[in-house]
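Entry 12.
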Amino acid sequence: MSKSMHGKHNHSIDDKGRLIIPAKFREALGRDIIMSPALEDNCIYVYSEEEWDNLTEQLSHLTNSKEQNRELKRYFQANAVDCSIDSQGRTIVPAELRKNAGIDKDVVVVGNGKKAEIWSAEVWREREERPVLSRQAIRQMLENSDIEIFG
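Predicted 3D structure (tokens):
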């Protein structure tokens, strides 16, 4: 079972397209990783091989008789890139994924449970300044769920 990733780390992508993956995230991800474009956000998802296999297993259960299911499977499979983390903790972030996410040099690597996310530092800063959900809305969602964090 994969370790959960949390926290945010400011980093830069060098001229060769390399990014240092935070040490705690490297422990959870392992050496071989899969990167894919995010669906709803301008960022890049980073999965361990185990988590990628879990995702593709779930996708395999979708029937191919529906066009939307076929397109969803294609989106993930066609846009995924196998990457690896070198002995210095660096990985190459593919240029096409960087371009699609609006990532240039400065990034924020964010832990989001079983995956990491790579964000443009500028986009992440804007997101923090104008969050999608207020703290009050998050609290209300938690109070209406079975998740206990107030105990």
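Annotation: The mean pLDDT is 90. Residues 2 and 50 are 7 Å apart (CA to CA).
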